[in-house]
Amino acid sequence: MSAATPEQRRPAVLSGVAVPALDAEALFDVTVEDGVFTRIEPSGTRRGDEPELWPGYTETHAHIALPANFDDTAEDPRIIALQYLYHGVTHVVDMFGYPMVADAWEAGRAASDLPYPELVHCGYAVTAMTNAAGLSGHGVEFPTPVYMLAVEADLDQALRNNAERGATFLKVMFTDGTEQPGSKVRFSRLSERVLRFTARIAAERGITAVIDCNTLEETRWAYDCGFRLFAHTVRDRTLGDAEWKDLAGARFVSTLSGLRPMVMTADDFLAAYGREGFAETQDVRNLDAVRGLEQPYGITYGLQETRTGALGDMRRNALAALREGNLLVGTDSGNTGAYHGYSLLGELDLLRGDDPSLADALRHQATVGGRRYFDELRGESGAAHPISVGAPATYNLHAPGRPLSALPTATVVRGTPIDRQAVARAIAGLRAAAAAGTTTHDTKEGAAL
Ligand SMILES: [Zn+2]
């Protein structure tokens, strides 16, 4: 952002706003000066219809370098940054692949008048070697590099290389790709020995490790080897009390948005993409792609039933984790149909379902919980509450009673209000420039394709 104007340096006062993350019953007067909160004081009792101030959202499971569009194209990272900003997502955790776009992201940020979301990343993921049956570790199938671990020394190399690229945590791929016990094994898996070693070395070096598992068996195995952070919830069954007891202290990221497009019909898609903000931020050619869909991809690929079942289990397990304060709200954005920014707000609706009593807890986890996680991944576990005196004034205002997926009524980043229409215009400008570039490219080289 360019230097603050005198107007922005003048104290801004929000009188009588609700800050449910601090006190559900009270109203507050909040003062912002020079981009930070300088006063947060109770000023009365809440009636219910006052605007709510929450920290900016944190997307806790994103892949900026993966193609979210149905034609398998990845968005320009400069557009992705603004897609997040538009939806009030001010912090993003990239769960592998970011180094591929790091230069473009940084150059875009340096040239942008609008603030980019803060981002933390793990570099490239680690996974298993190709095994005797010819199966590779999960992650090899994505258009980003991964490190394949066979022996302990491979981990050291991966950690060094990722650190050099600015990574601050470790992403371990572990699932063999089965969604139900007995379904087809798609990937090789790390041995127990390497898994145990990986958890131990990460802990010794103070690096937070997040692991990717599908089934309860995989999750238990990883837990027993020392992992406590899971990139998805368990998808092959709804866990009971005894099973939760065995996973005490484990935290899970919800990723319904990234898994759901596989089972959606054309009507499901059009409803999901019919919320405010889609046309302003996303490539609208995706609407044509889903409009013409004759049947869900799950039927085409023969996994409609297992995936539908998996989504139900994942949601129920996510809500159980929510009750214990162990849910992180994420989407696996960058997977087909899981759009940056837009899908995080949709994820909240998917988690809430028809139970309005979940709304505040979900928003709390998507804001305060997400930010705490973000700070932990960047190595600042003891960071102050995001709504406290001295903290950056990065927040959203929400109208009470609206759906969780509704756009914030205001987004403020380090004290600067974001003009949402200006963000939409900047996205449109980048798309127009890219389209003009494509035309030239087609004219020159189209004949060769
Ligand atoms: Zn992912």
UniProtKB/TrEMBL annotation:
Transmembrane segments: none annotated. One of its GO terms (molecular function) is hydrolase activity. Keywords: Hydrolase. InterPro entries: Metal_Hydrolase, Metallo-dep_Hydrolase. This is Hydrolase. It comes from Kitasatospora xanthocidica.
